[in-house]
Amino acid sequence: MGEKVFMQGNAAMAESAIRADCKFFFGYPITPSSEVPEYYARAAKERPEENIVFVQGETEVAVFNMIAGTAATGKRVMTATSGPGFSLGQEAMSFMSAAGLPAVVVEVMRSGPADGEILAAQGDYFQAVKGGGHGDYRVLVLAPYSIQEMCELMQECFDLAEKYRNPVILLTDSLLAKMREAVELPGRKTSRVDQRDWTLTGCAGREHHVLTTCGDGAAQWEAFNLNLQEKYAKIKANEVRWQSYQVEDADIVLVAYGSMARVAEGAMKMAREEGLKVGLIRPISLWPFPEKAFQGLAGKKFLVTELSAGQMVEDVKLSVDRKEDVRFFGRLGGVVPSPKDILAEIRKLEVK
Amino acid sequence: MKHELLFSGIGGQGIMLLGEILCNVVIEKGYQVSFAPFYGQEKRGGRTMCNVVIADGMESPIISEAELMLVMDERSLKDYEHLVAPGGTLLLNSSMIELEPQRRDIKVVKVPFYEIAADLGNAKASNMVALGYVLRYLPFVDREAVEKEVAKTFSAKAALVELNVKAVKTGYEYEEQV
What we know:
- The structure holds two protein chains of two kinds.
- By secondary structure, chain A is of the alpha/beta class.
- Chain A has twelve helices and 15 strands.
- Chain A has helices at about 10-20, 35-45, 60-70, 85-90, 90-100, 125-130, 145-165, 175-180, 220-240, 260-275, 310-320, 340-350; strands spanning about 5-10, 25, 55, 75-80, 105-110, 115-120, 140, 170-175, 180-185, 240-245, 250-255, 280-285, 285, 300-305, 325-330.
- In chain A, the strands form three sheets. In chain A, strands 2, 3, 4, 5, 6, 7, 8 and 13 form an eight-stranded mixed β-sheet that branches.
- In chain A, a hairpin with a 5-residue loop joins β5 (about 105-110) and β6 (about 115-120).
- In chain A, α1 crosses α2 and α1 (about 10-20) runs parallel beside α7.
- By secondary structure, chain B is an alpha/beta fold.
- Chain B has one domain (about 1-175): Pyruvate-ferredoxin Oxidoreductase, domain 3 (3-Layer(aba) Sandwich), CATH 3.40.920.
- Chain B is built from six helices and six strands.
- Chain B has a six-stranded mixed β-sheet, with helices on both faces.
C-alpha cells in the first residue's frame, strides 16, 4: 500500500496496472474508458524509464489482436474499452481463450444497445459473463464496487490471467470510471509465473512452441475442448469471490454488483435504520458466479438490483432454492437509482 | 456524519470544477469523499451535474436527497428540485433562472451569481462566486484552504488566480439585497 490520493477511477486503475508491471497498452478511445489510454499515453511519454509501450490502434478489432499478440510473448498487456468497442473485440476474445492467452481487458460499461448513452449501465453483463464470442469458452470476470477495490482487482487480473493462461475481464461502469474518491494506490507487483515453457519468444536453441486455435479432427478438437473445460472447472472451484453483509437475520437480501452494490449498500443501511431486516450479497467474481453465497438462505426473499433490464438476476435464480423468491429492480438508459429508490422497492416487498 | 450535495448547470459554467475544488479541500480533512460527475456527450452547452458525498465512511456515491443543492440553470431546477431534502437548501442562480420552485418544504435562496462575477470583471467566474456562497453552508470547510486550492487550480495564469480567489471571497461575503 502506498499514498492516499483523491483520484478518478479510470486514472487510478491505469496507474495500478502500470504498477502491476503491465507495460503494454493498446487502445482505441471510447467514452467512458478514454482516460485509461490517455493515462497510458502520458505515462509512456513522461516516464521513459518505465519503458511503457502505448499504441492507439486503428480500431478495436486491431487492438484486441495486438493484445493477443503481446500476451503470446508472455508480456503483461491490456486494453480498456466500452460496450461498442468490446463487441468488436469478441472474435479475439474467443481466439485468446482457445490459445490460452493471459490478456487483460477492462470493460467500462455504458448504456446500450448500439451507441446508446455514455452514462452508467450494466447491460453488458451477458456479453462479459456468458461470452460474447463463439464457442465453449469462459473468461474470468471481476466487478469492483469502489475505486480502491478497482485498483486492487486490476492488479489481481494479471496474476489470474497468468495463473490460468486465460483472458480476464475487469468489468466496471461509467459511474465508477468517472467518479473520484480517496484511494491508497497499490504498490509495485511483478509476475510470479514462469511462462517460458509456452510463450513465443523466438526458438533459437530450443524446441519451438505452438499456440493453436484450430482442430485436426473431431476427436482431437473434443480433447482440446475438454482440456479447456477442465481448466474452467478449476477456476470455478478456486476463484469465486463475493461479500455478504448482514444476511443471517435478513428477511430480504439485496443482490447487486459494481456501482449498484454501492447504492444497494446505502439502501441496506437506510432500511436497517428503519428496523427492516435487509442484507446484501455482492458478487465480486461474476464468472465464476458465487453460487455458494446463496447456500443456507432458504426462506429469504432476494431483490436483485441492476442497471439493466435483468441479466445477473438469471444467475441468482440458478443459485437459490426457489426462483419465486427472486425479485428484480432495474433502471435503464444511464439512469442510476438512489439508495432511497431501492428502499422504496424494499418496502413494496415488505408489504406483500 | 454524512452530507449529500448536488451541483448542476450547463457545460462550460464550471460546475464540475466547483465540485472538484471543494472535494480536494475536504479530502485533506480526512473525510471520505466521493465526487460523481454526470454529463452528456457535448463539451459545452450540455447538461452537467455532480453528486458530492462527504462522510466518515464509505457511502453510496449516488445521493438520495441533497441537503444543499446549487442549480445554475432552469432545466436543472426542473430536473432536480424533487431531490432537495425536506428542510434542505436550494441555491438558485437568479441571473439565469426566472422559474419559481414548486416546493414549500425547503429553503430557497436566490443569488445573481453572473452579475456578481461580472461586477468583479468576468462573468465566467460565477462558479467560484457560487463556491464561495456554498461554503456558508459547510462550516467544516475552511475558506482559506478553498482559496488556496483555487489559487493552485488557476496557477498557470496570475490574473485568473486573483479574479477567482476574489470571486470565492465575494460569494462567501455576499449580502442578499432584500
